[in-house]
Amino acid sequence: MEQFVVEGGARLEGSVSVLGAKNAVLKHLVATLLAPGTHHITNVPGILDVEIMGQVLAHIGVECTFDGSAVTIEVPDDLVPETPIDLVRRMRASILVLGALLARTGVARVALPGGDDFGSRPIDIHLEGLEAMGAEFELVHGVLHASAPDGLTGAEVFFEFPSVGATENLLLAGVMAKGTTRIGNAAREPEIEDLSAFLSSMGASIEGAGTSTITIEGVPSLSPAVHRAVPDRLAAGTYLVGAAITGGEVTVRDCVPDHLRMELRKLADAGCEWDAGDDWVTVRGPERATPVDFATLPYPGFHTDMHPQMVALLSGASGTSVITENIYSARFRYVGELNRMGADVQIEGQHVIIRGVDRLSGCPVDACDIRAGAALVLAGMAADGYTTVVNVEHIDRGYDNFVEKLSGLGGQIRREVVDN
Ligand code: EPU
After folding, report:
1. For position 411, which CATH number holds?
2. Given 178, 196, 228, which residue is the final one in a domain?
């Protein structure tokens, strides 16, 4: 087991680069299943989830070779269309192999996904969309058996909610389906535009990715491609909150500031100053944050995956803030941990009420999911004394070289191996 030990009090200063987005690269890896041959993806972060997806693909018969921030993917002609339950339960993104395997082989056996514990996370929107395209499903002992007896056919689908994963699953299923697929109320995340760009370089015909209506003309086959992943806006945003919470000044390089519009607006409301160019953004933190209210929403709204980091910041603000979580029903396990550090945060239904306190006080805390873990590390940077964060494999799932990057900014943090 490993833990992070954070000593509070240092201001984060300097510059840090981010690599490609976890939530883009995982989908690119799955998309390679659609075309036999050799693909290359660059700007790939060294994170646990990418490693797990490599293992999922290995089970399917695909070989991934990592070399620094590049990965070469060898996709054979024949695939094993199933995913092992132990891997799928560790990572929700594995459900995306469903659309790709159905498109490529007409069958798939996929265990129901796990991932972060944010309350119930059904896949009904994925299944409804794929059913409209001719897929049939049966749940057998926790494993979804999917088949498309007559192949997948284009369909008009209108989502009840702009689900990121369902939009991606239908993109993967639609690019080689017969005819036209139109997705209404599609998710508009930059990572979806990036998946569409990768699929297009493989020969797919897609219009409207990044808008609420995506139109896909199926093509008979796709070819391997080379692609550079879109920068990780969540890693970037996390380091910017690091500047804000420590009253420091951090420049994030190799990012797309435009993808963080709403988050930067709320950081400004909290008293930060910021400045940006095409691929960099600098945030200067205030001596003490001012309270801010906001709601998480699908892109381009405030990202749910920046919610815990913002709560960490606002727990030291000069008044009361209210955040409404609209994406997940139960993304609040980190609140108990933050309160143990002296924060005054209360949950009322989907609302988080944060009464700013004068200081946080370091103590042992549990990184219950990726973003909660990052938020607790940032809280530790602003707290008195030492904060020990356990279960750091959650943080390792999503942040490339987190300890090294924070240390490079002057943060006092180290990784320790602990005996059970
Ligand atoms: N939902 C349904 N039915 C469905 C699909 C989704 O009810 O069929 C609900 C979910 O239960 C959830 C909400 O809709 O409450 C949002 O789910 P969505 O499908 O949009 O998200 P996702 O594809 O499961 C991705 C990211 C998450 C990120 C969300 C929202 C990946 C691998 N994961 O999840 O990232 O929070 O979009 O932006 O892309 C993270 O990186 O830490 C992370 C959790």
Report:
1. 3.65.10.10
2. 228
- Ligand 1, atom 7: nearest CA belongs to which residue? 122
Same domain? 162 vs 307: no
Question: What is the per-residue pLDDT for 89?
Answer: 79
Look up 305 and say whether it is catalytic: no
Residues 163-199 have pLDDT tens digits of 999 999 999 999 999 999 999 999 999 999 999 999 9
Taking the CA of residue 126 as reference, the ligand 1 atom at the shortest distance is 8
Residues 201 and 185 in one domain: yes
Q: What is the pTM of this model?
A: 0.97
Cis-peptide, bond into residue 122, ω within 30° of zero = no
Span from the CA of 44 to the centroid of ligand 1 (angstroms): 21
Find the range with the poorest average confidence among 88-97, 252-261, 295-304.
88-97
User: Separation of 350 CA from ligand 1 center, angstroms?
Assistant: 17
pLDDT band at 228 (very low <50, low <70, confident <90, very high): very high
pLDDT of residue 142: 80
Instruction: Give the list of residues 6+ apart from residue 294 with CB closer than 8 angstroms, or none.
Output: 266, 302, 310, 323, 324
Q: Are 372 and 308 in contact (CB under 8 A)?
A: yes
Do 249 and 344 lie in one domain? The reply is: yes
The predicted structure's pLDDT at residue 90: 80
- Once rounded to an integer, what is the mean pLDDT over residues 292-312? 98
How many whole angstroms separate alpha carbon 308 and alpha carbon 19?
21
Separation of CA 393 and ligand 1 centre (Å): 20
Predicted local confidence at residue 270, as pLDDT: 98
In terms of Cβ atoms closer than 10 Å to its own Cβ (0-12, 13-18, 19+), residue 318 is middle
Closest approach atom of ligand 1 to CA 187 = 20
Binding site membership of 246 for ligand 1 (Cβ less than 6 Å): no
Q: In which domain, by residue range, is 90 found? A: 22-228
